[in-house]
Every structure is written in structure tokens, then in C-alpha cells.
Amino acid sequence: APRVLVMANQKGGVGKTTTAINLATALAAVGERVLIIDIDPQGNASTGLGIARTERQTTIYDVLIGTARLSDVVIATKIPGVAVVPSTPDLAGADLELLSAPRRNFRLRDALTGFAAERGKGAGAEGYTYVLIDCPPSLSVLTMNALAAADGLIVPLQCEFFALEGLSHLLRTVELVRGSLNPKLEILGIVLTMFDKRNNLSDQVAADVRQHFGDKVYRTVIPRNVRLSEAPSHGLPAILYDHKCPGSQAYIALATEIIQRERAL
Amino acid sequence: APRVLVMANQKGGVGKTTTAINLATALAAVGERVLIIDIDPQGNASTGLGIARTERQTTIYDVLIGTARLSDVVIATKIPGVAVVPSTPDLAGADLELLSAPRRNFRLRDALTGFAAERGKGAGAEGYTYVLIDCPPSLSVLTMNALAAADGLIVPLQCEFFALEGLSHLLRTVELVRGSLNPKLEILGIVLTMFDKRNNLSDQVAADVRQHFGDKVYRTVIPRNVRLSEAPSHGLPAILYDHKCPGSQAYIALATEIIQRERAL
Ligand SMILES: Nc1ncnc2c1ncn2[C@@H]1O[C@H](COP(=O)(O)OP(=O)(O)OP(=O)(O)O)[C@@H](O)[C@H]1O
Ligand SMILES: Nc1ncnc2c1ncn2[C@@H]1O[C@H](COP(=O)(O)OP(=O)(O)OP(=O)(O)O)[C@@H](O)[C@H]1O
Ligand SMILES: [Mg+2]
Ligand SMILES: [Mg+2]
Q1: N or C: which end of chain B has fewer CB within 10 A?
Q2: Is A24 within 8 Å of A34 (Cβ atoms)?
Q3: Residues of B with CB under 8 A from a CB of A
Q4: How far is Cα B111 from Cα B107, in angstroms, rounded to an integer?
């Protein structure tokens, strides 16, 4: 069964989607087979992977409310080795709709279990080695579903004061999830994003985080790089849009570091 | 009764909190009396106004679930003319707890009505001329409460592609709110934030937004300015931390533009 990695942080705009898209692409470039699940009603990961609105007739929403299986909603992307389960703003309704549903926090995990079993039957679809889940900026039932289904959590953290403030709340929530919904959930690492070497604030936040979390902080730091924010308007990951730019190079290095750590597990 | 202005946008990290804090400070500097309501469980507006965790024993959470009145939870800040109703991560529980509550989307509006009536009795507290509400990055029941209570909506919009993508979803939601919860809700304006004159993307997004929304886009543009992101670590609005920096000057100009537009209404 694939390793399920979640990008989560309730602080908004810290680089969850950018990390999910570019990490997936970098992993696929070294031979991994990656499925991205977009569980954010904003649908930014779907857009950043070039999925048009017309290709999102059935989405993760249908899987969570139980009217479709994962294998019904997976679609290929232009990127070799990367497939996606897209989302649309309809997903915002799932918060309310799932509240009285049975196993409301396990809908995604149950769907992934079914998906792995289906694959086992030689359903013709190749196996995935990684599933990456992009979360919305909240700790709602959508993010809970992702954390309950995860093997590991990767926390994108913008090098800013407000982002640092939210980290302790996120880690407390992870402890709660580990104690109730998913005992195997592990914090794989914290990735520092939008690091701007021209300003002290980035350095201070980075030093603070490394002091508190030591090895949990990836050595690879993602620099602030406009090419990363230009790529989505072309429906491409930065690694395909401009693989030589500092942002792409950093995500390739991050993928290498993550694989090294996975191998050491 | 005070004018109630809401900063909302489900896209994360676009400058909602930074706009709420600095706009409030700039309005107070020209003689307005401002109350900021922090309805985001992250509590960034409370932190950016220097409110310690120990001062947040009762918060907006208590008001929404009905165990406190607004006048019980308002606290003064170091900034003359600015008071705040703080929040803490407990507020994240309100989404679930309010779902079966009566008038769940009107809890804040009802509290503000009660607050205005209380003031009327000469409660000794001075009247506010503006209430600014800082929202979380979602369209959950917390943001719905803010929109149902609002006279006007100010949309902070980062000059980035993903932020632009989310705008149409936000505007559709506003139409729904106007049609059901709050017919008087008006989109006052869109404020372009984190504008970086060194990169084309900012120009393209700004041009695109002005083309679609014309006069609804404030002339004042907030530049990317590190001083804005340094100020919260000192518990101060940028306007007090460094009033000469480009970020502060832009928020002062924005306040002037908003007051001019309010007078013209
Ligand atoms: N390293 C970077 N350098 C420059 N821009 C970046 C970088 N990483 C992300 N961005 C841009 O910053 C914005 C926020 O990033 P992104 O949308 O990935 O964050 P997010 O955490 O997924 O946001 P949300 O909380 O709304 O889901 C986007 O416009 C993105 O293109
Ligand atoms: N004009 C600016 N220039 C530089 N940094 C800024 C600017 N405006 C905001 N910031 C910083 O960018 C980050 C995001 O801004 P802010 O937290 O105000 O956005 P938000 O929309 O309130 O985020 P959330 O969606 O998490 O509530 C913060 O760290 C803030 O200090
Ligand atoms: Mg995102
Ligand atoms: Mg905020």
C-alpha cells in the first residue's frame, strides 16, 4: 500500500499547495508513482496541476459523501507519474454534511483502504507508492479526514511570526488525532517556506524553529521565488515550468531528503 | 450604531489580519473609535494587538455560544481609540457547537444588536464608530456570522494567481448571504495586498482585477513590505511600530480612501 503523506497547517498561505504539487512532481521524476488528493474546497492543487473545471465532474466530495469510490475519481495529469483526485468549491458543504455521517472522520481512510484492495485485484491500474493530500487552511472535518488517513504529516511553515504562533496549536491537534483517530500518525518534518535571505525575520523564525524542533526540521529550505507563484497560472508545477529556478531546485532537494529519511525508517 | 466592516477571504495568507489591525489603527488616528472583533481561532489579530494569552479568559467564543455578552469581553489595547474582542483556539470548536444552535448564523449579529442597546443606556462606555471583524480563511459558520452582521465587506486580495482564482467563489458566497442572511451586505472594496513592483505577476493580477471590478478596487495598493510582518512580533500594528515605512503609509492612505467613500455614501 502507498505511503500517505499529508500537507497540513491551519495558517493560511504558508505553501501547503505549492509543496504538495512540487513534491509530487519531484518524487515522480525519480520514479515514484504519486496520487495527489485535493481535499481543499479552493481546489488550488487541482488548478496547479492543470485540471480544468470541466474535468471535475466527480471529485473527492463524492468519495467523502459515499456516492463514488476513489478509483472512479482519479484522473491523469500532464505530469508523468502523477495522478490527482480533484476538488471543487462544493466540497465546502462536506463540513456540514459529514457532521452526522457515520465514521465521519474516517471517510477518506475507508476510501483509501477500499482503493488499495481494488488495486490488489489487478484492476489494471498501476499501484501508487505515494499519496499526497493537500489540506485547506483549517482544522475542520476535511483536515481531520486527511490526518486520520495519514502515515505522516509534513508541515509547511512560512518564515513569519503569525505562522510560528499557529504551530503549537497544530501540534496539539496532531497529538489529539494520534490519541484517538490514528495512533500511527507521525510528524515527518517541518519544511521552512518563502525564506527571504534579505530579511532578518526569516532568519529569526528559522533559528527559533530549529532550536525547538531540531531534526524534525528539514535541512532543505524553500526560498521565496516568484517562479513558484507564476507556475500555477500555466497549470504546471514549477519543476516543469522552470526546473532551473531556485524554487524548483529546492523542491527537488526536499524530495531527495524525504526519500532518504523514508529509506532510513 | 457603528459601521460594521468585515475582512474576509477564504484564501489563506492574503492579508486579512494585517489589514484589520492597521486599518483600525489608522481610523483611530483620525478620531474614529474602533472595536476589532477577532473571529479567527488562530487569534492573530489579538496577538498583533498585543493581547497576551492570559488576557483572553473570555472571548468571542463565549459570546457566540451565549455565555457572555459583547460588553463582558471587550478589552482595551495599547492603541488609543482601539479596543478588541479577542479569540483563542477554543473558537475552532464553535463550528461544530453552533451547528444545531438556534439562529446559528446570527449569533454575532444578535450580540452586536444587544451591545448597541446596552451602549444606549449610557453604560459609561463610549460609543464605537467602526467595528472591524477579522475572519478565518474559510467560509464556515464563523465567517457566515461575520457576513450576516456586516454593513460592508472589504476583500484583501494578494496579487497572486491562486488568490485570484478564489475570488469568484467568495463573491458567489456573498450573493448567497445577501439573498438569505443579510440583504444590506455590500462589497465596499477589494484591496490589493503584497504588491511587489519587481515582478510581473503582481502587475498582471492587479490589471486583471481592475478590469473586472473597476471602481470596487481601491486606488490604494498595499506594497509587500517586511516591516508589516515584523510588527506583530512586537505586539504592535505597523503604524505604531514604524509609521514611516511604505506598508504603514499605504494603510494610512487606505483609511483615508475608505473614509472618503463612506462620506460619499
Ligand atoms: N516559496 C515561494 N516563493 C514565492 N511564492 C510562493 C512560494 N510558495 C508559495 N508561493 C505563493 O504564495 C501563495 C501561497 O502559497 P500556497 O497557496 O501554496 O499556500 P497554502 O498554504 O496552500 O494556502 P492556503 O492556506 O490558502 O491553502 C501562492 O500564491 C503561491 O503561489
Ligand atoms: N503587505 C505585506 N507585506 C509583507 N508581509 C505581509 C504583508 N501583509 C501581510 N504580511 C505578512 O504575510 C502573512 C500573511 O498575512 P496575514 O496573516 O495578515 O494574512 P491573513 O489573510 O490574515 O492570513 P490567514 O488566512 O491565515 O488568516 C503574515 O505573516 C503577515 O505578517
Ligand atoms: Mg492551499
Ligand atoms: Mg488572519
Answers
A1: C
A2: yes
A3: 10-14, 17, 41-44, 47-48, 89, 92, 95-96, 99, 136-140, 158, 160-162, 165-166, 169, 172, 196, 199, 201, 226, 229-230, 232-233
A4: 6
Helix (H) or strand (E) holding A162: helix A161-180
Q: Give the gap in angstroms from C-alpha B193 to the nearest C-alpha of chain A.
A: 13
Q: What is the maximal distance between C-alpha atoms in chain B?
A: 55
Q: Which residue, by CA, sits nearest to atom 31 of ligand 2? A: B229
Name the E strands within A8-129: 34-38, 75-76, 82-85
In this prediction, residue B125 has a pLDDT band, given cuts at 50, 70 and 90, of: very low
CB B203 within 8 A of CB B161: no
Kindly report, residue by residue over A191-246, the tens digit of the pLDDT.
999 999 988 999 999 999 999 999 999 999 999 999 999 999 999 999 999 999 99
Residue of B48, B137, B230 lying closest to A201 (CB–CB): B230
Question: Can you tell me whether residue A254 is helix, strand or coil?
Answer: helix
Going by DSSP bridges, is the β-strand pair A75-76/A82-85 parallel, antiparallel, or unpaired? antiparallel
